[in-house]
Design brief:
By secondary structure, the chain is α/β, with parallel strands linked by helices. It has 17 helices and 27 strands.
Length: about 550
């Protein structure tokens, strides 16, 4: 682990164990224990097609059998497996099978395309890639064929559904074999993705110990117990619906997970009524849509819903105030990151705190620093950069020593790139962002990644991608482009098409493209993104009048 991912220094690990945060649990054993305690209780409800209801016993057995099959295919401890599945029951069968043999799921999102998947498979030297045959009209088998042609080391493509030229997940032999060498609690469980701010997404190494602690802490804060029913409305692989408290928190508690194939009210509201859902998590734009749909009057009974978690991007105070009246449930704001630190407003916080802050950390051992540009600590109430260190925050990205040297302080604090203010009560208010990223309603876009794609176009001399304000998503992306001298005319739609055809997630395609002769510069001659952001915001404002 030491060479791939910087671990926790021994004195910190000892402290986190002594404090009772790390309890030596693993995901494989967790599921085994729950299944032994209540084999007949429903774990997963997958309503797509004919509703499937898997009990804890069934999920445990499926994970075991698939684990044996994966071992027979030659996939074993420490191997990476890129998992790109929509919200289907098999997601849990696959990841628990991988957990059990100590292979590491790499959590891709259904929106990812050639560019991202090729990178994940090549960079992690993945042994296998797991996809659904077709979802939302997109054929992942074709994507897999292209990736496989480019990444020769990728030995297996496993498909949920009709496999085409690949291997059917259902056809993997499942004769029980003893699982050798179960992973240890301090070892890596999976690689999560960072929204990032660099040319390629960074991978986040999480251990069983640290992640399970974040689940246990989240469950306590969100009052998740065995009677809870969690609706997974966002893409299951994302860190928020996975862990805050998410599907894995729900399974840790012995609760029930209901998978929504889509997060829209027309799909989610009937599921809430039918399955008596008690909590769910949404990004701000979706929370707005749900609030509006409920306020306009819905025929569905949403009275089982106790808690709506909203996070991933800043939730406006006005929108936050409307949640309880419209949906009849409590709001919890959650400000989290796949790198670790997660903050929640508490269920007993005063209403003002719930609607005006993004919560406070899970753990008393989460260390929070708010600093100026020179890393000097600022007084409480001042706005500055958020640095953090703690029992479930990574000490470094996976195989990224150079990046780690700047993304972490010498003493191991993660530089979140978020600009925050701490209140007297210890709650954080997100005031902005220093990292070069656009937060498109919770979907993160690294400016540099998109700039690289634009720069690949023969007519593009330079590109600078910035956020522009948007009433629905909070932010959208605007790409400023300087064309090469003598380049023929290029129109924005052609440039967008060019980027799309390079194969990347649709949410990363620039929403708007502006051509300029040159970029504004800062005092020392760097591109002034601040000026570019101001320019596009002013144009949009002027266009409104
Ligand atoms: P990632 O590192 O890709 O997991 O994305 C985490 C980032 O999402 C954080 O560092 C914040 O920039 C942003 N974020 C998450 N939740 C919130 C929130 N409630 N308010 C504002 N920003 C958020
Ligand atoms: O945006 C995020 O990454 C996020 C938001 C809320 C997250 O990782 C989380 C909660 O755990």
């Amino acid at each position: 682990m030491s060479t791939d991912a910087p671990g926790y220094p021994p004195e910190f690990a000892a402290r986190y164990r002594a404090a009772g945060w790390w309890r030596g649990e693993t995901f494989g054993r967790m599921l085994r224990d729950r299944a032994a305690a209540h084999p007949g209780r429903i774990a997963i409800v997958d309503p797509a097609g004919e509703t499937r209801r898997w009990t804890y016993g069934e999920l445990d057995e499926r994970a075991d059998r698939l684990a044996a099959g994966l071992l027979a295919l030659g996939i074993g401890k420490g191997d990476r497996v890129v998992v790109q599945l929509p919200n289907v029951a098999e997601f849990f069968e696959v990841v628990f099978a991988l957990f059990r043999i100590g292979a590491l799921p790499v959590f891709a999102l259904p929106a990812h395309r050639d560019s991202e998947i090729r990178h994940f498979c090549a960079f992690t030297e993945a042994a296998a890639y797991v996809v659904q045959d077709v979802a939302e009209g997109y054929d992942y088998r074709e994507l897999a064929s292209r990736v496989r042609a480019d990444v020769p080391g990728l030995r297996h493509v496993l498909v949920v559904g009709d496999p085409g030229e690949h291997t059917a997940l259902a056809g993997v032999p499942r004769d029980p074999v003893p699982v050798p060498d179960e992973p240890e609690p301090h070892e890596l469980a999976f690689l999560q993705l960072s929204g990032g701010s660099t040319g390629v997404p960074k991978l986040i190494p999480r251990t069983h110990d640290d992640y399970i602690y974040s689940l246990r802490g989240s469950n306590e804060i969100c009052r998740v117990d065995e009677h809870s029913v969690y609706l997974c409305a966002l893409p299951a692989a994302h860190n928020f619906p996975l862990s805050s408290p998410g599907t894995l928190g729900a399974l840790y508690a012995g609760a029930r997970v209901v998978l929504a194939p889509r997060p829209s009210p027309d799909v989610a509201f009937p599921l809430i009524e039918r399955e008596r859902v008690t909590l769910t998590g949404l990004v701000p734009p979706l929370a707005l849509v749900w609030t509006e749909a409920a306020a306009a009057g819905t025929p569905y009974d949403l009275s089982s819903l106790d808690v709506l978690l909203v996070g991933g991007a800043k939730f406006s105070e006005e929108a936050a105030r409307r949640v309880r009246p419209a949906l009849g449930c409590a709001l919890q704001q959650v400000f989290g990151m796949a790198e670790g630190l997660v903050n929640y407003t508490r269920l007993d916080d005063p209403e003002e705190t719930v609607v005006t802050t993004q919560g406070r950390p899970i753990s008393p051992d989460d260390e929070i620093r708010v600093v100026d540009d020179e890393d000097n600590d600022l007084p409480v109430g001042a706005t500055g950069h958020l640095l953090t260190r703690g029992p479930y925050t990574i000490r470094g990205y996976w195989r990224a020593p150079e990046h780690n040297a700047t993304a972490f302080t010498a003493d191991g604090f993660y530089r979140t790139g978020d600009v925050v203010r701490l209140t007297e009560t210890g709650h954080l208010v997100v005031e902005g962002r220093a990292k070069d990223q656009i937060n498109r309603g919770g979907e993160k876009v690294a400016a540099e990644e998109i700039e690289n794609h634009l720069l690949a176009h023969p007519a593009v001399h330079d590109a600078a991608v910035v956020s522009m304000p948007d009433t629905y998503l909070g932010e959208r992306t605007c790409a400023y482009v300087v064309l090469r001298d003598g380049a023929g005319p290029v129109r924005p739609p052609a440039l967008k098409k060019f980027v799309r055809e390079r194969g990347l997630a649709a949410f990363k395609i620039p929403d708007r493209i502006e051509f300029v002769a040159a970029f504004p510069q800062t005092g020392i001659g760097k591109v002034s993104k601040k000026d570019l952001r101001a320019a596009i915001a002013a144009r949009l404002a002027a266009a409104q009048h």
